[in-house]
Amino acid sequence: MKTLVTGATGFLGSSLVRELIRDNQEVRVLLRKNSDTRNIADVDVERVYGDIRDKESVKAALIGCENLYHTAALYSFWMPSSRVFYDINVEGTKNVLGAALQQGMKKVVYTSSIVAVGYYGANTPANEDVKFNLWGLGDHYTRSKHLAELEAMKFYQQGLPLVIVNPAVVIGVRDIKPTPSGKMIIDIINKKMPGYIEGGINIVDVEDVAHGHILAAEKGKLGERYILGNENMSVSQYFELIGEISGVAPPTMKMPYSAAIILSHGYQFLSHITRKPPVLTPALVRSGSSYAFFDCSKAVNELGFKQTPIKTTMEKAVNWFRDNGYVKAS
User: Fold this and answer.
1) For residues 317, 319, 322 and 325, what is the CA-based torsion angle, rounded to 10 degrees?
2) For 72-100, what is each residue's pLDDT tens digit?
3) What's the Cα-to-Cα distance from 128 to each of 93, 114, 117, 235, 248, rounded to whole Å?
4) Which CATH number is associated with domain 2-175+202-232+293-309?
5) 3 state DSSP class of 72
6) Which residues 6+ apart lie within 8 Å of 201 measured at CB?
7) Distance from CA of residue 287 to its chain's centroid?
8) pTM over 0.90
9) SS3 143
């Protein structure tokens, strides 16, 4: 039984590939010719080349496979052109799932995100049944993941054996890019983050999320989604944890929301000139000042999803960043 993984060179996708191999599954990965393959350089997988934006290459990659994990996505909070979010996250997903439907896959797991679920505040952790309420953030990543999940459900309604997983803020080892969540840790340790905006997040270990994908394939109910998260923490609590593990004092200056919004507009304006990512965007301020708390009990109860203590996860992440040269010597 052969399994195809898209996004296999990424932070989450590479952890999933390792979990699948540990589970004695035969794995094929879809790679772009210019992909950074360091995360899977030491694993024995079949490699095929293509792009999720190219329907024919996806169809060819799926030949002979029974299972599919579609993890490929653009995870960023700014790009010079917003169109790329929709080309990859929406149109790419339509290409992959459309090909999977045509070829009669046995099981498909689609990697969505908690941003496609919605944020309901510190006192009302969101579950899988809430209505999406983040369109007003103005964030193209968030919008594209919501739209992609709607497209995924259309394929389920056409007969695709689909399960959706919604990872929370994922941290851990092998975050080579790094992702926005990994960069936050690095910036705090390197003392590049002068202040913060209070809000709330749900943190989870990348290796737990990878295993959660396999559990979703094995035990997940078709047409349903599962939030793969762990601990809800305020931003200040999260920063204190990073400081405790790293031995570096976290930022203590709490920025007023109004000041952060004004500053973010300035950063975003400069980025349109420099074509370099802004330090802060208005959408990131709006998102960061929300309490993105989640109820993860469905995945725990129905899938047997395991949750590593967040302190242990943070220790692994900080040690990996230090060991791999992301942290400046003190």
Assistant:
1) -70
2) 999 988 888 899 999 999 999 999 999 99
3) 20, 9, 7, 23, 36
4) 3.40.50.720
5) coil
6) 168, 169, 232, 233, 235, 238, 292
7) 15
8) yes
9) helix
